[in-house]
């Protein structure tokens, strides 16, 4: 039998805690956590890898969660145009259908930073009973959606942020009267109007770990990036490629914008470090109107979209390097 | 004109189809009709096509497959109501011209 000592000339060392400055390629056993570890060296640039596809291909859906625990919510398929109620939960390997929305819809948003056990969706578009901008919101408890109080301004193509079914921010969108900058805060029991984004916008996305710290980006017609501090929106540095109908994930200091429209930008990815947007590796399957989950500018999950043709593709934006645990199967 | 792109047809099976090292080294572009575009004369790209059992296509063959899908998407758009065509991100899908 081949042994580590036989191929490397030395045994794997035991440590009660990870060594402070391991060599690149060094392998050790952490006796406290009972794990085998390796230092892969400095992380390389984050890039997109394929993951297993959604069960229901769709676009204009909402997402929430992380790369290993995400929700894909609602959306649209065509032809014929059908607004979806399906929710799927991702466990890091595959998508599983869970409870449907009470109101099928697309072009909605969510408390994007929330876990798969506690979330809220709001606004959106539906064709039943007729094409309409929605004021509905629904909360998720990990297994079912429950109707929640309505938002103040019905709209679709909105941005969202927040961290749970009791903490969310809604901004921008297209109302029956046109593009709006209206912003609303959800505190777990009601929606309250607060300071507007300076200019009406729609088809945008957002990121943010709470209703008091969020980022709005990739919106039509401006393409501006705005940072939210809980009371005001401030324009910050713009993306290098102006686009809209993108996916977005992360926080107000570490975010990713994924794909978008017009067609030349379908695959473009940029990362936000709290100050600037920087071009990153493109999606492998260029598209727009994707759903997304993720917590930082090196960790994101993109699912669904339009390429042209409705897509079920899932891709993970990941960075490899540093100290990792070795698993065997 | 020198060939700069390679084309193959293969269905994306999900996890493991494009892995981190491959995505780091190869510029992929997934196109309608399960057509994949990768750099020509590239050892890593050739190894990936071999790994996924991609069926190699000439540029013209790949273009024909993409055209079928784009035409279908255009026909779908044409069939939408005027209201459904209204959003600014809902323009008629444009033709995709593959690089040589």
Description:
The complex is a heterodimer of chains A (329) and B (100). Chain A has one helix at 4-8, and strands at residues 13-15, 27-30, 35-39, 47-51, 62-65, 70-73, 76-77, 82-83, 87-90, 95-98, 109-110, 119-122, 125-126, 132-133, 137-140, 145-148, 159-164, 167-171, 174-175, 178-179, 183-186, 191-194, 205-210, 213-217, 225-228, 233-236, 247-250, 255-258, 269-272, 277-280, 291-296, 299-306, 310-318, 323-326. Chain A is mainly beta. Chain A has 2 domains: 4-39, no CATH class; 47-318, Neuraminidase (6 Propeller), CATH 2.120.10.80. The longest helix of chain A is centred in the first third of the chain and has 5 residues, at 4-8. Chain A is elongated and about 75 Å long. Chain B has 100 residues and is α+β, with helices and mostly antiparallel strands. Chain B has one domain (5-79). Chain B has helices at 20-25, 43-51, 59-79, and strands at 5-9, 29-31, 35-39, 55-57. Chain B has a 4-stranded antiparallel sheet with strand order 2-3-1-4, with helices on one face. In chain B, strand 2 and strand 3 form a beta hairpin. Chain B is elongated and about 50 Å long. Chain B starts with a strand and ends in a 21-residue tail after the last helix. The chains are: A mainly beta (329), B alpha+beta (100). The A-B interface holds A 44-45, 47-53, 78-79, 81, 93, 131, 157, 203, 220, 244-245, 261-263, 267, 281-282, 284-286, 288-289, 307-309, 313-314, 318, 320 and B 12, 14-20, 22-24, 27-30, 32, 69-70, 72-73, 76, 79-80, 83-84, 87-89, 91, 93-94.
């Amino acid at each position: 039998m081949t042994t580590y000592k036989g191929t490397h000339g030395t045994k794997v060392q035991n440590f009660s805690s990870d060594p402070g400055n391991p060599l690149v390629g060094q392998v050790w056993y952490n006796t406290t956590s009972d794990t085998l570890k390796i230092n892969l060296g400095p992380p390389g640039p984050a890039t997109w890898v394929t993951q297993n596809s959604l069960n229901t291909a769709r676009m204009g859906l909402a997402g929430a969660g992380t790369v290993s625990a995400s929700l894909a919510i609602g959306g649209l398929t065509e032809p014929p145009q059908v607004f979806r109620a399906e929710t799927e939960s991702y466990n890091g390997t595959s998508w599983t259908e869970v409870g449907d929305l009470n109101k099928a819809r697309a072009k909605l948003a969510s408390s994007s930073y929330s876990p798969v056990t506690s979330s809220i969706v709001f606004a959106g578009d539906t064709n039943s009973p007729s094409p309409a901008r929605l004021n509905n919101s629904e909360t998720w408890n990990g297994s079912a959606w429950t109707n929640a109080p309505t938002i103040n301004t019905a709209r679709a193509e909105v941005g969202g942020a927040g961290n749970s079914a009791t903490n969310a921010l809604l901004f921008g969108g297209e109302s029956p009267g046109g593009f709006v900058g209206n912003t609303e805060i959800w505190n777990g029991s009601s929606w309250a109007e607060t300071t507007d984004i300076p200019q009406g916008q729609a088809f945008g996305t957002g990121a943010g770990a709470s209703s008091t710290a969020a980022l709005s980006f990739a919106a039509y017609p401006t393409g501006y990036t705005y940072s939210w501090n809980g009371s005001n929106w401030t324009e910050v540095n713009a993306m290098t490629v102006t686009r809209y109908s993108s996916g977005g994930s992360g926080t107000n200091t570490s975010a990713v914008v994924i794909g978008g429209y017009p067609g030349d930008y379908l695959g473009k990815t940029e990362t936000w470090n709290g100050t600037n947007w920087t071009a990153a590796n493109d999606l492998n399957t260029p598209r727009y109107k994707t759903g997304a989950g993720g917590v930082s500018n090196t960790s994101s999950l993109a699912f669904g979209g339009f390429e042209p043709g409705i897509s079920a593709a899932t891709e993970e934006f990941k960075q490899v390097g540093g100290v990792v645990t070795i698993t065997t199967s | 004109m020198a060939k700069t792109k390679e084309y193959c047809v293969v269905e994306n099976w999900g996890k493991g189809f494009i892995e981190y090292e491959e995505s780091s080294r190869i510029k992929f572009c997934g196109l309608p009709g399960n057509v994949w575009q990768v750099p020509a004369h590239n050892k890593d790209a050739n190894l990936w096509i071999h790994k996924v059992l991609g069926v190699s296509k000439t540029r013209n063959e790949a273009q024909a497959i993409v055209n079928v899908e784009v035409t279908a998407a255009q026909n779908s758009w044409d069939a939408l109501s005027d209201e459904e065509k209204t959003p600014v991100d809902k323009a008629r899908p444009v033709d995709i011209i593959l690089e040589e």
